[in-house]
Amino acid sequence: MDIGCHGLVWTNSWDAHGITHAIDGTVRAGYSRIELPLLDPDSFDAEAARQKLADTGIAASGGLTMIDGADISSADPEVVARGEARLMQGLDLLHRVGGTHFVGMPYGQLKRFSSVPTPRERENTLAPLRRVADRAQDLGIRMGLEVVNRYESSLFNTAAECLDYLDEIGHSNIGVHLDTYHMNIEEDDLTAAIVSCGRRLSYVHLGENNRGVLGAGLIDFAEIASALSQIGFDGPLVFESFTASAANDEIAEFLAVWRDPWNDSFQAAKASREEIARVFGA
Ligand code: MN
Known about the structure:
Layout: E1 3-6, H1 16-28, E2 33-37, H2 46-56, E3 59-63, H3 77-97, E4 101-102, H4 119-139, E5 142-146, H5 159-169, E6 174-179, H6 180-186, H7 190-197, E7 201-206, H8 221-230, E8 237-239, H9 249-254, H10 265-280
Parallel strand pairs: 1-2, 1-8, 2-3, 3-4, 4-5, 5-6, 6-7, 7-8
Helix pairs in contact: 1-2, 2-3, 3-4, 7-8
The structure holds manganese (II) ion.
Manganese (II) ion (MN) binds near residues 179 and 205.
């Protein structure tokens, strides 16, 4: 199986030093993929990442969200256009490092909303995502839209809602990206949510209910493994966890990380990798 570790487990400095630290740690902890946060594409050292990934032979995925002023879910066409340009820049960066999956929240901002998008805002996201998906397909990169909880998006919060939204987009290169942390908040039934995606599931984040080390919380990963095996999903499966000390204060504030679940990146990555091996047999 294709088992990855999220880059923010290690650092949020994507210069050559940070990239070396994150990729070396990921390999040493037993993973064959790293997910690279491309949130600040201008400061990301693509050449260093390309070289380090080639040297180690591990796979890469990446993603970025919309921000104020560059957001495809805006009602303002100029802001939508800048959002599409931001997505194309992130996709190009991922292609330059040799990445295979463009995932996360390309469809909007990660924040607490006070309402659902208007029909116009929702409609505005569709054409840019189709064009990004076309370009990704040309580059051999598969896309996934991450289903996140109600405090981080109001476009969709469940697998069923995401599948409806994907039907509106109507592009075969975009699938569902599920995350067990978010599913635990929103879904009625973990197995049913996974099975309902079937072949349209393109990417999975393994996160504990408290976003800490896998196996140290409440998520039933044996149930997740069984449901994924029912639909023949063979990855990527990516461990995701956040602390203020490994990422940074801005990320921590974004994600409401008010206490660090661990203080040693390597120990957290290794323990989580061992839990994946135990539960998934991979
Ligand atoms: Mn996630």
